[in-house]
């Protein structure tokens, strides 16, 4: 089986979408599936305003069609709601082709934080975008339930996994005063990093990642250790050296870094919002509190062994099997003809 995945997020970007798709490609290969990707690498790109490290594709519709037809896929999956995703959706609708899609980013909150656009308008556009999908994949059951309640149809769960061989407890020390409170991710306004960096905590705050806010944050928070981007073994060693993983974001739909930290034996401190709430639930591996400082201090008392055991139950192999099941469900259907953003705002769940 060959699956074509259309995505506006791709290497060299470092984010959960890229990592998830990369791991799916590896995990599904062992199941006899080939995944091919339609990415910005095939088109002329421009820098995203405010995010010079993120390139937006400018894909001609004819080239999109040609690349899909040359690939001869058995199924089509749209991973993002950007220019590539939009044109692949248009291609499938024009030919009444079945497709699946996934919901990775809470764009309504993300957009309304920057522009005077009501969240309801963005939700309406997202419902329209995903209305042709035979499987709208969400990372957790609570997120799937929320999307269904918001009028999305055919919502199905696609859980995430973690590489527990790479991210594991190990003897590692950053040589910094302890306890070490670590945050990993893109340094951008939507990650709400100031909520972490402003906290009065003992020990050391450590930040791993890069992004448009890095220079300004480093100037403002001189007592914080900014380590830049890290990958592979180096990143895994940094996780293992931490005492608490702090996740201040309120807009992530999941947060793969949560599982990476837990697999490393590091408890989580976060706000009680979608993402950490859905990943951790009531498990004794993290503390969710509107008072992030209290969450950080309480997380110091949690068992590192419990964190590791929790993460071991979440594999990329299980994620790949769920992904393929949702793909096959969608591929067995046909796209419907409705195509007005406003016409689907009151669509009831399937």
Which terms would index this structure?
single chain; 350 residues; alpha/beta; Rossmann fold; 2 domains; 6-stranded parallel sheet; 14 helices; 14 strands; 37% helix; disordered C terminus
Q: Which CATH C-level class of the largest domain is it?
A: Alpha Beta
Strands side by side in the biggest sheet: 2-1-5-6-7-8
Average pLDDT:
91
Percent range for β-strand residues: 15-25%
Share of helix, binned? 25-40%
- N-end to C-end Cα span: 26 Å
> What CATH architecture of the largest domain do you see?
3-Layer(aba) Sandwich
Biggest β-sheet description: 6 strands, parallel
Topology, pairings included?
Layout: E1 2-6, H1 16-29, E2 34-38, E3 45-48, E4 51-57, H2 61-71, E5 75-78, H3 83-94, E6 100-102, H4 107-112, H5 119-130, E7 136-138, H6 141-149, E8 155-157, E9 180-184, H7 194-197, E10 204-208, H8 214-220, E11 225-228, H9 232-241, E12 244-247, H10 256-263, E13 268-270, H11 276-280, E14 286-288, H12 292-299, H13 304-312, H14 316-331
Gist of the model:
This protein has 350 residues and is α/β, with parallel strands linked by helices.
Q: What does this protein look like?
A:
With 350 residues, the chain is α/β, with parallel strands linked by helices. The protein folds into 2 domains: 2-161 and 318-344, Glycogen Phosphorylase B (Rossmann fold, 3-Layer(aba) Sandwich); 180-312, 3-Layer(aba) Sandwich (Rossmann fold), CATH 3.40.50. Helix content is 37%, strand content 17%. The strands form 3 sheets. The protein has a 6-stranded parallel beta sheet with strand order 2-1-5-6-7-8, with helices on both faces. Strands 11-10-9-12-13-14 form a 6-stranded parallel beta sheet, sandwiched between helices. A two-stranded antiparallel ribbon has the order 3-4. Helix 1 crosses helix 14 and helix 10 (256-263) packs across helix 13. The longest helix is centred in the C-terminal third of the chain and has 16 residues, at 316-331.
């Amino acid at each position: 089986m060959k699956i074509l995945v259309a995505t506006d997020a791709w290497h060299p970007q470092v984010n959960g979408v890229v990592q998830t798709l990369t791991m799916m490609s590896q995990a599904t290969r062992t199941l006899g599936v080939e995944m091919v990707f339609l990415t910005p690498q095939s088109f002329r790109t421009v820098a995203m305003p405010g995010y010079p490290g993120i390139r937006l594709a400018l894909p001609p519709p004819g080239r999109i069609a040609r690349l899909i037809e040359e690939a001869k896929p058995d199924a089509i999956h749209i991973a993002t709601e950007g220019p590539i995703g939009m044109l692949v959706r248009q291609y499938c609708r024009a030919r009444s082709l079945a497709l699946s899609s996934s919901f990775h980013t809470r764009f309504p909150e993300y957009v309304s934080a920057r522009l005077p656009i009501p969240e309801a308008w963005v939700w309406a556009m997202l419902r329209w975008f995903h209305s042709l999908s035979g499987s709208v994949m969400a990372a957790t059951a609570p997120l799937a339930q929320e999307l269904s309640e918001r009028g999305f149809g055919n919502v199905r769960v696609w859980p995430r996994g973690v590489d527990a061989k790479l991210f594991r407890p190990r003897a590692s020390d950053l040589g910094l005063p302890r306890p070490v409170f670590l945050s990993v991710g893109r340094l951008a306004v939507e990650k709400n990093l100031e909520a972490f960096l402003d906290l009065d905590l003992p020990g050391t705050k450590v930040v791993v990642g890069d992004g448009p806010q890095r220079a300004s944050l480093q100037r403002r928070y001189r007592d914080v250790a900014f380590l830049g981007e890290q990958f592979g073994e180096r990143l895994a060693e940094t996780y293992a050296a931490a005492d608490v993983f702090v996740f201040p974001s309120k807009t992530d739909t999941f947060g793969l870094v949560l599982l990476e930290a837990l697999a490393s034996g590091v408890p989580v401190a976060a706000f009680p919002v979608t993402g950490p709430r859905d990943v951790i639930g009531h498990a004794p591996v993290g503390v969710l509190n509107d008072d992030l400082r209290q969450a950080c201090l309480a997380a110091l008392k949690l068992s590192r062994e419990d964190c590791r055991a929790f993460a071991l139950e979440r594999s990329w192999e299980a994620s790949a099997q769920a992904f393929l099941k949702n793909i096959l469900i969608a591929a067995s259907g046909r796209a419907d003809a409705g195509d007005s953003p406003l016409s689907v705002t009151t669509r009831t769940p399937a």
